[in-house]
Design brief:
- By secondary structure, the chain is an alpha+beta fold.
- It has a domain of 117 residues: Ku70, Chain: A, Domain 2 (Beta Barrel).
- The chain is built from 5 helices and 11 strands; from the N terminus they run ββββββαββαβββααα.
- It has a 7-stranded mixed beta barrel. The chain has a two-stranded antiparallel ribbon with strand order 3-4.
- The longest helix is centred in the C-terminal third of the chain and has 16 residues.
- The chain is extended, with a radius of gyration of 37 Å.
Length: 276
């Protein structure tokens, strides 16, 4: 399993060398965009709308737009120093809380945690302590240039960290439009709804839930592939130097050829009386 981060996690005086591994993967089917006429993949370029030319990576800078059309430019050196300063810090557990106190809206991504060299015993200690106390640890760390707030818990005998959003990143539910303030339902409607919920209530078995759209899309792609309904990108036509040179020479010859002139026909002399 690929390691995306190495460091240590601490709680109190206990320090655990760890590695982070992505716990989930994106299985969305990536579709390319082609030119309908020749089936060539579309190329997206970074173009300056003012200079009207393509911009190279070395000519791009990062900036914060503090008001419309006005920016504060941030140097790469400043960003790298800030990133290094924070990434050198260990993951520190700052609090322990009950898992049920955290609403699922806060959860973002999941990372497995494995012990690094010499960290197995301390890893086992934290895992056992979390299981016995039935609590989770709240920790801070920096991943991909962003300080993250995370929940450390036990999942199938493995420590896992769930990154969670900060409170100011979660929009207020009160700002959602058209939400009714009062429940205008009858008791009979409520009883019927509860009965339906009871009938559909079951144990959570994640294995029985499938991505039907992805499965159907894969089947469609496979049926078209085996049915030879495939297209091939048309190769780009590039003129060779020889062709260009011959064309230029021929054009030059054609341009320098002397134009054919037709001599004007002489008028016949009028007949005299003697000739007649």
């Amino acid at each position: 399993m690929h390691t995306i981060w190495k460091g240590s996690i601490s709680f109190g005086l206990v320090n655990i060398p760890i590695k982070l591994h992505a716990a989930t993967e994106d299985k969305d089917i990536k579709l390319r965009t082609l030119h309908k006429e020749c089936h060539s993949p579309i190329k997206y370029e970074k173009v300056c709308p003012v200079c009207e030319k393509e911009v190279k990576n070395e000519d791009i800078v990062k900036a914060y737009e503090y008001t419309k059309g006005k920016f504060v430019v941030l140097d790469n050196e400043d960003l790298e120093n800030l990133k290094k300063e924070n990434e050198d810090k260990a993951v520190e557990i700052i609090d322990f809380v009950k898992m049920e106190q955290i609403d699922p809206i806060y959860f973002d991504k999941s990372y497995y945690m494995s012990p690094h060299e010499g960290g197995s015993k301390a890893y086992s200690l934290l895992r056992k302590a979390l299981e016995e106390s039935q609590k989770v640890g709240l920790a801070k760390m920096v991943i991909r240039s962003k300080e993250q707030l995370g929940v450390i818990r036990v999942y199938e005998n493995t420590l896992i960290m769930e990154t969670i959003h900060y409170p100011d990143e979660v929009r207020k539910a009160g700002d959602v439009p058209n939400v009714p303030n009062e429940d205008k339902v009858t008791q009979k409607e409520l009883d019927t709804a509860i009965l339906l919920i009871d009938q559909l209530t079951t144990e959570f078995e994640p294995e029985k839930y499938k991505d039907d759209y992805r499965t159907a899309l894969l089947e469609l792609i496979e049926s078209k592939r085996t049915g030879k309904e495939v297209v091939t990108a048309k190769p780009k036509e590039t003129a060779t130097n020889v062709t260009d040179l011959m064309a230029a020479l021929q054009a030059s010859i054609d341009r320098t050829k002397p134009k054919k002139t037709v001599a004007p026909r002489k008028k016949a002399a009028p007949k005299t009386k003697k000739q007649a």
